[in-house]
Amino acid sequence: MATAAAPHSHLPFRxxxxxxxxxxxxxxxxxxxxxxxxxxxPLDPLVAGALLAAYGLLVLWQPTSWLLxxxxxxxxxxxxxxxxxxxxxxxxxxxxxxxxxxxxxEAFAPPAPTLSGRAPVKLTVTxxxxxxxxxxxxxxxxxxxxxxxxxxxxxxxxxYNSTLNAVRVGKGFVLAFMLIPFLHLxxxxxxxxxLDKLTVGLTLGLASCALAALWERLAFPGFANFxxxxxxxxxxxxxxxxxxxxxAWLMLCFPFALLALRQNRTPLAKGLALVAVGLGxxxxxxxxxxxxxxxIAVSLTLLGALALLRPTPASADNEPRRLGVxxxxxxxxxxxxxxxxxxxxxxxxxxxxxxALLAYIGGGAVAGIRLGHLATGMMTGVMLLAVGxxxxxxxxxxxxxxxxxxxxxxxxxxxVVWKRxxxxxxxxxxxxxxxxxxxxxxxxxxxxSEPTRFVGTAIAAALxxxxxxxxxxxxxxxxxxxxxxxxxVIAVLALGGMLVTTLGGYYxxxxxxxxxxxxxxxxxxxxxxxxxxxxxxxxxxxxxxxxYPDAYFWTIENPGVPGSLALHRDAGxxxxxxxxxxxxxxxxxxxxxxxxxxxxxxxxxHYRFKARSAQDLGIALHLCRKHLLYDDFxxxxxxxxxxxxxxxxxxxxxxxxxxxxxxxxxxATFSVSMNSRTQVDVDAFELVDSQLRPLLRNxxxxxxxxxxxFTSDRDHLPWHxxxxxxxxxxxxxxxxxxxxxxxxxxxFARLLRRPTRLHPFAPNLLAALVGVxxxxxxxxxxxxxxxxxxxxxLLWLALNLRQxxxx
Length: 807
Hints:
Layout: E1 3-4, H1 17-40, H2 45-61, H3 66-73, H4 80-83, H5 90-108, E2 115-116, H6 125-145, H7 165-190, H8 192-219, H9 245-263, H10 267-285, H11 290-309, H12 323-361, H13 363-366, H14 371-394, H15 398-420, H16 427-448, H17 455-473, H18 485-503, H19 506-513, H20 515-530, H21 536-541, H22 548-555, E3 564-570, E4 573-579, E5 592-597, E6 606-613, E7 617-626, E8 631-641, E9 648-653, E10 668-674, E11 680-688, E12 709-711, H23 724-752, H24 762-776, H25 785-800
Antiparallel strand pairs: 1-2, 3-4, 4-11, 5-10, 5-12, 6-9, 6-11, 7-8, 7-10
Helix pairs in contact: 1-5, 2-5, 3-8, 5-7, 6-7, 6-23, 7-8, 7-25, 8-9, 8-10, 9-10, 9-11, 9-24, 9-25, 10-18, 11-24, 12-15, 12-16, 12-17, 12-18, 14-15, 14-16, 15-16, 16-17, 23-24, 23-25, 24-25
């Protein structure tokens, strides 16, 4: 691996002209785009400006800091549900600020390289060809998507049916293309240090995303409520019409968190990486996404296989580490957890997990002991269990106290063994304490459920005791625990616990049982998607970026679209038009026009608005505790509207006050929907609480769609092809599909081939790309610019990464 060092003083740094010219051009374009963004930004522009300026100064001072800060903020920075802006968001401004600062620094004071030796990236012909083809495809399909040019006013930024949607989808590619030279230069100049910053940045991106998911779970369904049909969305507002933005981001970042866990040397850094892995695991499992579970399995299997292929230097300290044994131990823990959870619930599973942790750590203390010592220890453990069982009859909830006592004693003894050596504590004592703790999990299951319901937990205990016996009696130790293993073992046990609890819940079971039916629905949807291509031009270049939702709405006979939105103007000013659904929907699903209201609202709420329609229909107003797709508490009012009577005014009070925000606070939303297949115009919304404080902004729509958002809570197929390759083919044609397949296949091949795969960054980069591609088998992904940008950056890195020469 290349090492960082100061450049030789006798060789003055002379920056090349090309990067300086590009820096000036990129900065100029970025500043112009930022000016346009601020011109339409509806939230506080002073605060946004100050934050972006501070970030820009940081990047000017430390040019590689964008590799850390940008991915860390990427999943949580967008505020579209509050601002109403879905076309140009805060993440765009962050990327533009990065480009502006990087461009200025490159143009006027290019940073000197700190790398001595060969850089871990080198520009390849393959990368230029593949990305050139991709750029041509984006350009052509982008121009096709923009035809005809939309009117550049607020009405073009409502919904996804405008041709301006080509800009929204295409900006992810464009921003990535503009950042690629700066990414390449950073790694060429700083080597592994730049890659390490990117690893930390993506790990922080996983943690920030997972913290948002944790808040959502705590605020709405509950931390451990795995039976509800509530699926986590975190702060990926793009999921307001479905999609797998969260899934893709988790799979993109998770392998890098594992890399950070493996590479960090200090206990604090390892502990923080372990926290990120744990939070990311929780967020992944609470998506209740079958494809996320599959992607995790594929990524981890790939990392394990590459670790097996990696040459291991022989040394006296190289203890036995057989991949097959480790996999068998993991399988035993997963099976044991699956057997324990139905009988012992979360308490039984926690006890089993704690016992399994001690069993792995204690493996070194029992390796190679005599059969007599093993038998004596296990018999003593059984006697301790019997004594403890008697004690539980005398103590309230004594089964938990006895387990806590046994676990604490065992952990204390093992810590002494680790610090002072295995000879400090007789091996039968270690075996006895391990046996006692493991068997105590059976008591917990019997106590938690029924006294006779513990067979599964007993089998699970046997699955843990059997490897201990094998470790003791074998000529060669099955595993050799070390202090550094603790973080990895905890991560595996956490992943296993989450997997067991989610798969053991009613909701996930129902999703798994519906897989066959869902596959049939998806293939029918793919066939419908391919019907959108109606000319040879469409086949070659696609129907155009961002055109999928509009084409699906008008082309498919039964699209199942829950509704539409359009902003219009008449002599009285602007108003919003809600369009009725087309085709069969999921129950009474309808499109919701929404606005976030103050979280603290919990009083009676008074409403006023006006509406008109050509037919009689009903309008529904909703006041809910809601994050994105799922209601927690709602108070509703239904209002009949008489058709053909022009504008009619309505006012009243919601039948119930809005429930309090709770801890952590639950968000509050106001929504409008209608139950007819015709159109209705709405305007002049007012909402006030019991103290006459206004709760809405831009109720008359004179500021366009500012502060107004929309969601389709159940019907998501009309918005996406639900497959990365199908969606690419429909919108970008054969040209885009060939570019995508070439980019992915050549990236995979390069990262799998020696010597590139020997680079410590390569296996995790490959796992990230494979994980995202796996998610892409059931979702479009590239219609989400935040995912497109980082996927494109990682693809470029994969096509140019190389193993530096050994020094």
